[in-house]
Write a structure and sequence with these properties.
Largest interface: A-B, 41 and 30 residues
Strand content of chain B: 35-45%
Shape of chain A: globular
Strand order of the largest sheet of chain B: 2-3-1-5
Oligomer: heterodimer
Helix content of chain A: 55-70%
Structural class of chain B: alpha+beta
Helix content of chain B: 25-40%
Largest sheet of chain B: 4 strands, antiparallel
Number of helices of chain B: 3
Structural class of chain A: mainly alpha
CATH topology of chain B: Phenol Hydroxylase P2 Protein
Largest sheet of chain A: 2 strands, antiparallel
Strand order of the largest sheet of chain A: 1-2
Number of strands of chain B: 7
CATH architecture of chain B: Alpha-Beta Complex
Radius of gyration of chain B: 12 Å
């Protein structure tokens, strides 16, 4: 009788060699430079592509196997969510605002990252890089799909989920995330790798997915915990790829240092501005909060970012230029931005609200030096107006930053009572900025940023010509359903009604 | 000195992983958060296949970690037996 003998498994390093490096070849019919025309266009000097190695040594066969398992786990829970009235298990319908922002602003970003990595994988000559980019391109597509799929279960019951694709292109607050990805996708392949790998994955996803998904678990939202963790299980690989790319550029040629540092400065600040949205989700929109924005920043910004820059110091890299100003903004940004979202809530496809006494006590405990002094009085004033039946709506439009596209709602780094605004001229036109760092980014590449599509100016152009009703139609915003204060909204009423029906027999 | 860390989903599969990491890295600190477990360690952390197999009672491919991984910090180096996280600071 024959004994079945298990085939000898190749050691990981050897397998990586066979299934990655050995798939590449030197071209002979065409010159390498013609096949990879963008490899040198940014000015990054690479001498030996074979030095690039994926630290996880993941090969495509293993990739498919583990991704398939992640998908099976994901869909088991999504099915259970749909079959068990998962939409009624969340702590409170206010929580949905965080999901709506996520779907409108972040999920389309995942799809943009998919397109970007498909392109970077084609344009970078190294085979190790090509394989890693191919995996990441597939991951990002999976993230967009699983997020849309998971949240479609909420779209059956609640407002504000129905038009995320239109809103990604047209509404004002999503243009912050959109411009971030458009900026990265229209850069060269090395800058793209640094923008997404470092800024989006290393800085942003730790601050976005990790505490936010943990927060979703606290708020009874199994669907979001699942797509979040399923996506995040890929992010560890993406961060490692981003870090590997930075090290690779720095080790290949000392001349690359200046360019890498400039990109780190630029993309740290671009990422930090996108995080403005996340800070409001964490401090205001989770009914049951897991940690404050400040606490998340301490762990994933100060501690983890600090560790990274101490490590990269051996190559001559210093912390990003905006680092100190970011630190100064941490105790203010969520409050300033949420006040903005409330004032302009007629133009948001999610609800905002005035924090309750209990919420304000929490905010005051988490932000002891800033909340009671600067922000509680403003919320109290807004509450007084709302109680008098004259809720404050800001029908004036804020200046938009030409670089990050946020309305200028933030204050000077050293004076929280002074609005921060910078103005510059280029070829006779005036441009506005939210900060020194956004102005510096513009000044480095003005020809790029003068082409930006900005949501506010489009409101005043033909055919809308400033007509807010027509604008709402154009951005697929259903007035009185998708927008405005949570108190008195359909979402609030339906959630109460359905939850009542789910626990009673009348 | 900087901390490296690894964060895993809190589930049945990762119970043995967390236990193995604790055994192999007595200097590591385990923090349990909603739905996830964060393990911090100064400068260096090692995840060893042999220890995990011992605790799981079955063979284990270190790349299975990807399924339950949430995030990590530090330079990664992985071969058949060990996944290492480290900072050079």
């Amino acid at each position: 009788m024959d004994m079945k003998v298990a085939k000898k498994k190749l050691p990981l390093k050897e397998k990586y060699q066979y299934l990655t490096r050995d798939l590449g070849w030197e071209t002979t019919y065409q010159q390498q430079e013609k096949i990879f025309p963008y490899a040198e266009y940014e000015g990054i000097k690479i001498h030996d592509w074979s030095q690039w190695e994926d630290p996880f040594r993941l090969t495509m066969d293993a990739y498919w196997k583990y991704q398939a398992e992640k998908e099976r786990k994901f869909y088991a829970i999504i099915d259970a969510h749909a079959q068990n009235n998962g939409h009624l298990h969340i702590t409170d319908a206010r929580y949905l605002s965080a999901l709506k922002i996520f779907l409108q602003a972040i999920s389309p970003g995942e799809f943009a990252a998919h397109k970007g990595f498909a392109r970077a994988g084609r344009e970078l000559p190294g085979i190790g890089t090509q394989v890693a980019c191919q995996m990441q391109a597939l991951d990002e597509m999976r993230h967009a799909q699983t997020q849309i799929h998971a949240l479609s279960n909420y779209n059956r019951y609640y407002n504000g989920f129905h038009a995320f694709a239109d809103q990604r292109d047209r509404i004002w607050y999503t243009s912050v995330a959109r411009s971030f990805f458009d900026d990265a996708m229209s850069a060269g392949p090395f800058e793209f790798m640094l923008a997404i790998g470092f800024s989006f994955e290393y800085v942003l996803t730790n601050l976005l997915f990790v505490p936010f998904m943990s927060g979703a678990a606290y708020n009874g939202d199994m669907a979001t915990v699942t797509f979040g963790f399923s996506a995040q299980s890929d992010e560890a690989r993406h961060m490692t790829l981003g870090l590997e790319c930075i090290k690779f550029m720095l080790e290949q040629d000392p001349d690359n240092l200046a360019l890498v540092q400039r990109w780190i400065d630029k993309w740290f600040w671009r990422g930090f501005r996108v995080l403005g949205l996340v800070s409001t989700m964490m401090d205001y929109m989770l009914p049951k909060r897991v940690m404050s924005w400040r606490e998340a920043w301490e762990v994933y910004g100060v501690e983890n970012g600090g560790a990274l820059f101490r490590d990269l110091a051996r190559y001559g890299i210093r912390p990003p230029q905006g680092w100190d100003d970011a630190e100064k903004a941490i105790d203010h940004m969520s409050h300033q931005f949420m006040l903005g979202l409330y004032q302009w809530s007629f133009g948001t496809s999610f609800h905002s609200w005035i924090p309750s006494d209990e919420d304000m006590a929490w905010l005051s405990a988490k932000y002891p030096t800033t909340f009671d002094k600067y922000y509680r009085p403003r919320w109290n004033h807004l509450r007084k107006l709302a109680e008098a039946g004259t809720p404050f709506m800001n029908t004036g439009l804020a200046k938009l930053c030409q670089t990050c596209q946020l309305p200028s709602v933030f204050t000077e780094p050293d004076d929280p009572t002074m609005s921060c605004h910078r103005e510059g001229r280029y070829l006779g036109e005036i441009y506005h900025f939210c900060s020194d760092h956004c102005q510096t980014i513009f000044n480095d590449e003005p020809e790029k940023y003068i082409q930006s599509w900005l949501p506010m100016p489009s409101l005043f152009q033909d055919p809308l010509n400033g007509d807010v009703g027509a604008w709402m139609q154009w951005v697929s915003l259903l007035n009185g359903k998708d927008n405005g204060d949570f108190v008195g909204s359909e979402d609030e009423a339906n959630f109460q009604l359905w939850r009542g029906l789910a626990t009673k027999n009348q | 000195m900087s901390n490296v860390f690894i964060v895993l989903q809190a589930n049945e599969e990762t119970r043995a992983l967390v236990e193995a990491i604790q055994l192999d890295n007595p200097h590591a600190v385990v923090v349990r958060q909603p739905a996830m477990i964060k393990i911090d360690a100064p400068d260096r952390l090692e995840v060893r296949r042999a220890t995990i197999e011992e605790l799981l009672g079955r063979s284990f491919d270190l790349q299975e970690l990807h399924i339950n991984l949430v995030t990590l910090a530090g330079h990664v180096n992985e071969d058949d037996d060990t996944l290492t996280l480290s900072w050079n600071s």
